[in-house]
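Example 3.2
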Amino acid sequence: MIRPWMVVGGVTLLVALLGSITPPGGAKWFQRLQRPSWLTFEKLIPVIWTVVFVCGAVSATLVWQQAPGEPATWLLMAGYVLLELITVAYSPVMLITRKLRVGMVIGATGFVVAIVLALSVLPVSGQAAAFLLPYLIWSPIGTYTTWVMAQLNPSEA
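Structure, written as tokens:
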């Protein structure tokens, strides 16, 4: 029997894999950009995002288990997918456009969607809302880092 966490995990993994698509030369462009001196944790960013995605999947699973198949639950699941799509769009879209501002807009949009989702999930499951906290904490850090990089690389903003 397929469990809800398997479906949520599978969808999360598939969407996350979309975010790993990088255009030719995009990674080289990004690597040559100047970074803030305080960005000492850059190598940890993939690990941090993995934790954030796992927490999001746990959150979605908890919501699904409260009222499986209900129309309101499906709307919340659509919110989770929307948030994940916005999140994984950051790298490929920014690398295709080679504009840091695009990354800032995507990051800020994800944060706003995450706030709306967390507030929508809260009445269903406080625990599920709590599992969205890593996103709500990390997303502004990533967006701010992109903003600082835009200041350091004005021709790439």
